[in-house]
Amino acid sequence: MGTNGSTMLEPLRQGLPPLDPAAVSNAASCALPARFEAVREARQFTRRTLDQWEVGERFDDACLVVSELVTNALRHALPSDTPRPDDQGPPVRLHLMRWTERLVCAVRDPSHDSPVAGDSDDFSAESGRGLFLVDSFADSWGWHPLAGTLSGKVVWALFRLPPTPLAPPRD
Q1: Per residue in 153-169, pLDDT tens?
Q2: If DSSP states are collapsed to H, E and C, what string results for 23-64?
Q3: What predicted TM-score, i.e. pTM, was given to this entire model?
Q4: pLDDT score recorded for residue 81
Q5: Across residues 38-43, what is the average pLDDT?
Q6: Which residues contact 67 (CB under 8 A, 6 or more apart)?
Q7: DSSP H or E run through 72
Q8: Model confidence pLDDT, tens digit, residues 121-131
Q9: Distance between CA atoms of 18 and 44, rounded to whole angstroms?
Q10: Could you tell me which of 28, 129, 137 has the C-alpha nearest to residue 75?
């Protein structure tokens, strides 16, 4: 690949991935409590959902990426100094959306800070590694700030799905 770390991890800051929301064939979301058990809940939710959608080929990649995105979101949602108006509900929310040949996992958190990958030279560092995993396993990823009354941001990862074989024509 030969790209240096800083350019490789510039996420696409261009709003949502270039997909038509009207063409979504499946969508599911779940609110996650601001506790670290939420990572396990997010993984289970992703497994159940992808199972129903029969997205077997990218199953493990998507579960791994969801774990990392939720872990990062919780890191920003958990500090007690994060202002969190009560009317906003749970601070972290996971969205899964599927198009015919695309799967998008998006995680909302209350922090306005852009996702930053840690220093790539220090692989023993706990934080920052998650985005390298996201970058490695997803086909593309990015983030955008929330507009309107919602504060925070959404970080998303996109997976290409192999085309589903068409059913053989009936005589």
Answers
A1: 889 999 999 876 655 55
A2: HCCEEEEEEECCCCCHHHHHHHHHHHHHHHHCCCCCHHHHHH
A3: 0.75
A4: 54
A5: 95
A6: 39, 42, 43
A7: helix 59-77
A8: 444 444 556 78
A9: 27
A10: 129
